[in-house]
């Protein structure tokens, strides 16, 4: 009997369902609305559909993800001494680190190491077996200072693997200036290549960085186009200096930050390979020349100083994207972007969770064949190619930066991202939603604007880096300083109308709304009539902001009476919810200051509240 049932189960299969049948059922669930209502637009201008099928397959572009594993990289940050960094590296190499990664002078990247000569280099690499690990050095506009220190140190470099890479155009985009003409940087790159051909043949000396664009708010299409235009600039300059396409293309490595949009970011890395293949092929490069070296790093743009443990979760999904996207090496930053051993260990072990427990290093190109991912990869490649062609028509990446063409395009996307965060359309957990007011804020908001240099021989408008969380961090810090000065947290009193069941939804919404601005909600009891409100309010010392919370039904019954009970010259009254326009006008005439609701610009309303409560008098 059991055998027969098992045989029947094996012979069973799910009935085939057509797309038309799926749409019919979906529209029933949507109560007659078209399935297209489920479409969403990305920052790239790409429309995401709710379902993808074989009909969405495009002419798949050639993919070159032929391996599944990646090197465990972790960026070093400037410390008090090279001796301390040396000890840190030794400990981390024993604990799973496979690649030494840092930025160095003359790079202007924050936390770059100031390595100026052989003495510094010897201290940093003392007793570290350099033949067994990969070196990843981002040297900013020029790698010459670092390479000269390497030569003077007498270190054996024949078997040295990795990248000692310059990216003068990337540095120009990030800072807005260069200290010498671009032609001189290109000559230096050629000179460094001549050195490495004899002394360090396994190194790459050009490292195209996407940081400036990504951290400035660019979308994936803009990142890809800018990076490819930069790489083409280097190809042309190196070929003009006597290199073949094969030699020039294999001198270049790429670095992409990976953000929190899981599918977009993994498709970005896959699309990069498509674009690079097409570019090198157009220059006449063979299959070997088309190979691409991609380093990925978790994004600074997505991280927050608020509720910092959430950064661990963000970094995990970003590393997951990078692994599936086919990165050759990945840097997972620590959750506090700091130097402490614990947070760096957690970041390093993220790799090994993905490798050893999730088996991502056992499958080649695991996203291949997904209708959605393949479709998204090819849409990204197509759109990036169009923008790349626009940059090319302008005269290339440098001219696109000189004319502000690229900066202006990126600024449009950045403003949309920031607006979405302010309105909480884009959720940052622990920052603009689900705030933890009990956490210790041991940091201070500080911004480092791009420095101007009137005498720089090459100047453009630098792309100012930012993090999406900065605006809400500023509010929280202001509230913290206020609390330290006043001895009490800034508060908003919530007046709850009706039973708990009827007001809870808006009470919870309002509580969360104020908490992300560092404002402590003080909840009243559940009131059934206006007399109770009058009695309770008379017993409290309520000043400042009051927010009334209830259902639409209780508002009809009690809202006007509640407003009369709480109105006072020393109070501002808000209402949770968005009445229709006529009712809003009525309520404003009886002293309602504003309404908070799902479509509010949460940040702008909180800024106004902070100003009126005197919180903005505190430096942030």
TrEMBL record:
Name of the molecule in the record: methylmalonyl-CoA mutase
Signal peptide annotation: none
Species: Sutcliffiella horikoshii
Domain of life: Bacteria
Pfam family, one: MM_CoA_mutase
PANTHER family: METHYLMALONYL-COA MUTASE, MITOCHONDRIAL, METHYLMALONYL-COA MUTASE, MITOCHONDRIAL-RELATED
Any GO molecular function: metal ion binding
Domain Methylmalonyl-CoA mutase alpha/beta chain catalytic: 66-466
Cofactors named for this entry: adenosylcob(III)alamin
Family in the record: Belongs to the methylmalonyl-CoA mutase family.
E.C. no: 5.4.99.2
Xref: Gene3D superfamilies: Cobalamin-binding domain (3.40.50.280), Methylmalonyl-CoA mutase (3.20.20.240)
Residues passing through the membrane, by range: none
Record keywords, A-Z: Cobalamin, Cobalt, Isomerase
């Amino acid at each position: 009997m059991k055998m027969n049932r098992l045989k029947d189960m094996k012979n069973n299969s799910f009935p085939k369902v057509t797309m038309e049948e799926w749409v019919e059922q979906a529209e029933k669930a949507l109560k007659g609305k078209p399935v297209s209502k489920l479409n969403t637009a990305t920052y790239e201008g790409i429309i995401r559909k709710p379902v993808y099928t074989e009909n969405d397959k495009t002419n798949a572009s050639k993919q070159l993800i032929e391996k599944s594993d990646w090197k465990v990289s972790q960026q070093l940050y400037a410390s008090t001494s090279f001796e301390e960094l040396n000890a840190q590296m030794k400990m981390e190499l024993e604990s799973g680190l496979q690649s030494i990664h840092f930025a160095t002078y003359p790079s202007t990247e924050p936390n770059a190491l100031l390595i100026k000569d052989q003495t510094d280099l010897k201290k940093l690499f003392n007793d570290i077996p350099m033949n067994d690990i990969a070196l990843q050095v981002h040297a900013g506009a020029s790698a010459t200072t670092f390479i000269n220190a390497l030569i003077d140190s007498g270190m054996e470099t024949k078997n040295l693997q990795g990248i000692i890479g310059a990216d003068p155009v990337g540095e120009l985009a990030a800072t807005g200036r260069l200290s010498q003409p671009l032609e001189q940087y290109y000559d230096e790159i050629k000179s460094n290549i001549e050195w490495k051909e004899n002394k360090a043949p396994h190194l790459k000396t050009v490292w195209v960085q996407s940081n400036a664009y990504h951290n400035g708010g660019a979308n994936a299409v803009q990142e890809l186009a800018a990076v490819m235009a930069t790489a083409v600039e280097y190809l042309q300059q190196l070929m003009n200096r006597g290199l073949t396409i094969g030699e020039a293309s294999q001198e270049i490595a790429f670095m992409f930050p990976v953000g929190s949009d899981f599918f977009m970011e993994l498709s970005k890395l896959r699309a990069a390979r498509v674009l690079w293949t097409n570019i090198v092929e157009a220059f006449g490069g063979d299959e070997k020349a088309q190979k691409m070296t991609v380093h990925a790093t978790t994004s600074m743009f997505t991280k927050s100083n608020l509720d910092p443990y959430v950064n661990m979760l963000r970094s995990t999904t970003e590393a997951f994207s990078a692994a599936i996207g086919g990165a050759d090496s990945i840097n997972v930053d620590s959750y506090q972007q700091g130097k402490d051993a614990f947070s760096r260990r957690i970041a390093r072990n993220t790799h090994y969770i993905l490798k050893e427990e999730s088996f991502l290093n056992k499958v080649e190109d695991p996203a291949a064949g997904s209708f959605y991912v393949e479709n998204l990869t090819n849409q990204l490649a197509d759109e990036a190619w169009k923008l790349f062609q626009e940059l090319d028509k302008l005269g290339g990446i440098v001219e696109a930066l000189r004319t502000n063409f690229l900066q202006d395009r990126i600024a449009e996307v950045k403003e949309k991202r920031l607006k979405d965060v302010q309105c909480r359309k884009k959720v940052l957990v622990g920052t603009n939603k689900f705030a933890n007011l009990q956490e210790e804020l041991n940091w201070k908001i500080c911004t480092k604007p791009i420095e101007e240099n009137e005498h720089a021989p090459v100047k453009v408008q630098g792309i100012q880096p930012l993090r999406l969380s900065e605006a809400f961090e500023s509010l929280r810090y202001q509230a913290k300083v206020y609390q330290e000065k006043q001895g009490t947290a800034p508060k908003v009193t919530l007046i709850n109308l009706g039973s708990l069941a009827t007001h809870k939804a808006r009470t919870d919404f309002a509580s969360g709304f104020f908490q992300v601005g560092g404002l402590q909600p003080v909840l009243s009891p559940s009131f059934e009539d206006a007399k109770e409100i009058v009695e309770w309010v008379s017993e409290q010392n309520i000043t400042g902001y009051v927010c009334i919370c209830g259902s639409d039904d209780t508002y009809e019954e009690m809202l006007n009476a509640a407003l009369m009970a709480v109105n006072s010259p020393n109070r501002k009254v808000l209402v949770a919810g968005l009445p229709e326009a006529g009712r809003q006008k009525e309520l404003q005439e009886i002293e309602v200051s504003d309404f908070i609701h799902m479509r509010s610009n949460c940040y702008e309303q909180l800024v106004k509240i902070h100003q009126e409560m005197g919180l903005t008098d505190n430096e942030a």
